[in-house]
Amino acid sequence: EVQLQASGGGSVQTGGSLRLSCRVSGVTLDDYAIGWWRRAPGTERELVSCINAGDGETYYGGSVEPGRLTISSDNAENTVYLQMSSLKPEDTAVYYCRTMRYWGQGTLVTVSS
User: Fold this and answer.
1) Which single residue of 16, 49, 57, 79 has CA 20 to 30 Å from 66?
2) Starting at the edge strand that comes first in sequence, how are the strands of the sheet with 79-84 ordered?
3) Nearest of 90, 76, 94, 75 to residue 20 by alpha carbon
4) What pLDDT is stored for residue 28 in this prediction?
């Protein structure tokens, strides 16, 4: 069974940083693409970023400001990360990780003005 466990969310002030983690079990991580999605209040779920853990190729959603959010993987730890810096209130959302058709539980990020 494929399971994903997202963690690392929290409440920060504008300009702060967080690192989200997604630990994956049930698959060999480097065989799959893993993505981070988020849902802000009153919006549809939005793709933030995804990574092909096998070759390291990455993709970022069109609304993501370059450089502030960075995806990476540690295949030995079966974990994908989303490093977030210079956080803004518009980053406030529940963040989810996904591989194939499997979704992890969300982790809440709240950025205050």
Assistant:
1) 79
2) 3-7, 18-25, 79-84, 69-74
3) 94
4) 81
